[in-house]
Design goal:
The complex is a heterodimer of chains A (439) and B (181).
Chain A (H helix, E strand, L loop, with lengths): L2 H11 L2 E3 L1 H21 L7 H7 L1 H22 L9 H8 L3 E15 L2 E14 L3 E9 L6 E9 L4 E6 L4 E6 L2 H11 L4 H7 L4 E8 L2 E8 L12 E8 L5 E10 L3 E12 L17 E2 L5 E2 L5 H15 L8 H7 L9 H12 L2 H27 L5 E2 L12 E8 L2 E6 L4 E5 H9 L4
Parallel strand pairs in A: 7-13, 7-14
Antiparallel strand pairs in A: 2-3, 2-12, 3-4, 4-5, 5-6, 6-7, 8-9, 9-10, 10-11, 11-12, 15-16, 16-17, 17-18
Chain B lengths: L1 H11 L3 H23 L2 H16 L11 H21 L23 E3 L1 H10 L4 H13 L3 H8 L3 H23 L2
Helix pairs in contact in B: 1-2, 2-3, 2-4, 2-5, 3-4, 6-8, 7-8
Classes of the chains: A alpha+beta (439), B mainly alpha (181).
């Protein structure tokens, strides 16, 4: 018998017994945990937030917010630093004025607690340095079989993002502020985010291979700091053509927050494609109506609006968000259901009385300032301003505790406190403040 | 698998007997896995206790795409990794170099009682780097392929095979006379 087989047999024969008294005590703990959870669980029919999310127009509103935050995120994730390797690939792409690619992606998990999603999306993207981004998407819900076509435009010159949903004869338009435009313009002078992000991470070569007859070399990163640490586990592979030194295929496997798993493939790159400006002019039929009754104004991403986002979240739920990731914030809105705050109760009541269209608008009105907070935090991470956020331990009652801080100058930090006033303090003072944080 | 699906269905409906059956079905395997991975009975018990408590609290949100056994095993492994990482954080070492916790003896309120053979195996596994220990457990206890292990450990199948080979050689040397019995 081989050594491995003998050890395997030894392994299988190595027994473990259970002490009955201790076993009962442990099971009592387990059972107690189940009972406690069952008793505390809100009855599903009363969950206005979940019911609201079942509404088709509410789904569209969420889709719109998602598209906005994703595009926001994408533009924010485009850094301005370059690395020292893969530089040839970058310089090649910098010479490309327009390109296209296909994308296939699955998203599984929960955006809102209790509302699992499992979507498959295919998309064609056209990116022009001059005109912006046009993405034609089709999302399939495997549970219902429903296909939702969407068109998304990101138009720096018009300072707007537009999402068209032909299946519902709806569209939404988001006005983008100057900070975002500036970011997008930087992005236009800069190539693919993925390469830049890989460059900023620890990565390794996967060696040479062949994809669709093209000789390629692969690069992979599993560095958690990918995209400024906005995700959890990541595994990103990029395959670059040996002849062209341009990307041929990329594969993405990542967790967004704790509950969303995304897997995607980007392929069929076409470089230096001819572009007609008319392709970046959205055609919105006359019988389409806006999702929010008019253009949505994305609040400027700054400290003042971040504080407003924190204030709104606390008013609605009685506490600050535990995390500031864009998807985390959306998931944490589920806390609204259990909120006993006057603002939370009022919002729940308002939801009950609204028709579907008004509900969708209300969701957008509620989410935008809160997502602006997430975008502000992401900006701080992206710009490496050493942000630290303590929403999991600091409450609105902790007036003098550090809630969010970031570096503004050498030895100087900006601090937003539990009562939402802000101060600039020295590093030494900050250390003292952070020592006093609750355990 | 079908039995597990029924158990999960009952568990999600809040049925205590379903939870009891899941607990009874998997507790020994999970304890054994935790013991051989972490090498300390008390810590292993804490980990499995915690896994079951968290599981019991998850009825309204648990969504299984794979098997229940895999879900529980993964929960145990994640906690073992966290414990080792926390322990080694100040040393800034990776899991590869993670040391096992100090083994403690059987106490009067011990939940898991190790056979002599399991105690011996646990001691021998303590001599292996953590990644090798995981490979051995995945292969021996869970009958996973090298490719499946590679996915879990986020490395190549060749690396896993290397880890497995080294681990077997070392275990053979350590357990030489015992495995022949």
């Amino acid at each position: 018998m081989r050594s491995a087989d003998k050890i395997k047999r030894f392994f299988k024969d190595a027994e473990l017994h259970i002490h009955p008294d201790s076993d009962e005590r442990v099971f009592e703990d387990v059972l107690g945990a189940q009972r406690k959870t069952t008793e505390n669980a809100p009855a599903v029919p009363d969950n206005v937030w979940r019911i609201t999310m079942k509404n088709p127009l509410a789904k569209l509103a969420v889709a719109a917010v998602l598209a906005i935050v994703c595009v926001t995120g994408i533009s924010l994730w485009m850094g301005t630093q370059s690395g020292i390797a893969l530089a040839d690939v970058l310089s090649r792409i910098e010479q490309v004025s327009a390109y296209m690619y296909q994308m296939s992606m699955t998203v599984a998990g929960e955006i809102v607690p209790g509302r699992p999603v499992n979507h498959e999306m295919t998309a064609t993207a056209l990116i022009s340095q001059e005109h912006g981004v046009k993405m034609t998407m089709e999302t399939v819900d495997p549970n219902s079989g429903e296909t939702i076509p969407q068109e998304m435009y990101m138009l720096p010159q018009k300072k707007s993002m537009i999402l068209i949903m032909p299946g519902h004869k709806k569209y939404s338009q988001v006005e983008i502020d100057d900070t975002m435009i500036e970011r997008m313009q930087k992005q236009n002078n800069d190539p693919r985010a993925m390469i830049k992000q890989i460059l900023e991470c620890e990565y390794k070569s996967l060696g040479k291979s062949t994809i669709d007859g093209v000789e390629v070399e692969g690069f992979q990163t599993t560095d958690p700091s990918y995209q400024a640490g906005a995700f959890g586990q990541v595994d990103v592979k990029l395959w670059v053509g040996l002849d062209t030194w341009l990307p041929v295929r990329s594969e993405i496997d990542m967790w967004v927050g704790d509950n969303m798993h995304m897997q995607g493939v980007i392929f069929d790159f076409q470089w230096d494609v001819p572009v007609d400006a008319a392709e970046f002019e959205p055609v919105i039929p006359e019988d389409y109506t806006t999702l929010a009754g008019g253009p949505i104004k994305m609040p400027p991403i700054n400290e003042e609006n971040a504080i407003q986002g924190l204030k709104l979240f606390a008013e609605l739920t009685g506490q600050y968000p535990e995390k500031l990731g864009l998807m985390d914030l959306m998931a944490q809105m589920g806390k609204l259901q259990d909120s006993g705050t006057p603002a939370g109760e009022q919002l729940r009541e308002e939801f009950k009385g609204l028709d579907p269209e008004e509900r969708a608008r209300k969701i957008l009105d509620t989410m935008m300032p809160i997502q602006s907070l997430g975008a502000f935090h992401m900006l701080l991470v992206q710009d490496k301003k050493e942000p630290a956020y303590y929403g999991s331990i600091v409450t609105p009652e902790d007036a003098d505790q550090v809630l969010l801080r970031w570096k503004v100058a050498e030895n100087e930090y900006r601090v937003i406190f539990g009562d939402l006033h802000a101060e600039t303090v020295t590093a030494e003072v900050l250390v003292e403040y952070e020592k006093a944080l609750p355990e | 698998m079908i039995e597990d699906k029924l158990l999960i269905f009952g568990f999600k409906k809040g049925r205590c007997e379903a939870l009891r059956q899941i607990y009874d079905k998997y507790k020994v395997d999970l304890l054994k896995l935790a013991v051989v991975l972490i090498g300390d009975v008390n810590t292993a018990e804490d980990i499995v206790h915690d896994v079951f408590v968290r599981f019991a609290q998850s009825a309204d949100r648990i969504r299984l795409t794979g098997s229940l056994r895999n879900y529980l095993v993964t929960s145990v492994i994640n906690r073992v990794r966290n414990v080792l990482r926390d322990k080694n954080r100040h040393c800034e070492t990776s899991l590869e170099g993670a040391d096992l916790l100090t083994s403690s003896g059987q106490g009067p309120h011990q939940w898991a009682v190790l056979s002599e053979r399991l105690a011996l195996l646990s001691r021998a596994l303590r001599e292996l780097p953590y990644e090798q220990r995981e490979v051995i457990c995945f292969r021996m206890e869970m009958d996973m392929t090298f490719r499946q292990i590679a996915t879990r450990q986020r490395t190549s199948a060749n690396t896993v095979k290397g880890r497995y080979r080294y681990a077997i050689e070392k275990l053979r040397a350590l357990l030489n006379s015992e495995v022949e019995k």
